[in-house]
Write a structure and sequence with these properties.
Layout (H helix, E strand, L loop, with lengths): L11 E5 L4 H12 L3 E6 L2 H10 L8 E5 L6 H13 L5 E4 L7 H12 L1
Parallel strand pairs: 1-2, 1-4, 2-3
């Protein structure tokens, strides 16, 4: 388990819609490049399957959050979970079917970059 050559080593990424399809593929790619992940989706069982399929990585962590992003409060819940567990957010890949609070994500990212 080496960290050399991993372009996202030390980064924290949120992946919504991470339990299948494009979201899962992005999560796997970010993981291979060394990012710690917060995987979010509606199905706990499917998120657990994704997490278990990820090979061990030195200094990387994966957290799971079961959430329905059609709920306005879900975005704030995701942001709080990441900041409390991992610190600043480096990347967000939002591929969930419905995201009610997308403007809140954009506002939050703008706050981090300021």
């Amino acid at each position: 388990m080496t960290t050399t050559g991993r372009q996202l080593h030390g980064c924290n990424a949120i992946i919504t819609g991470a339990s299948r399809g494009l979201g899962r593929a992005i999560a796997e790619a970010f993981w291979r490049e060394g990012a710690s992940l917060l995987l979010a989706a509606r199905s706990t069982a499917k998120l657990e399957q994704v997490a278990q399929s990820l090979p061990p990585q030195a200094d990387c962590h994966v957290s799971l959050l079961t959430v329905d992003l059609a709920d306005d409060a879900a975005t704030a819940h995701i942001m709080s979970a990441v900041i409390l567990t991992r610190g600043l957010i480096s990347a967000i890949a939002s591929v969930a079917d419905k995201i009610a609070a997308a403007p809140a994500i954009s506002l939050f990212i703008g706050t981090i970059k300021s």
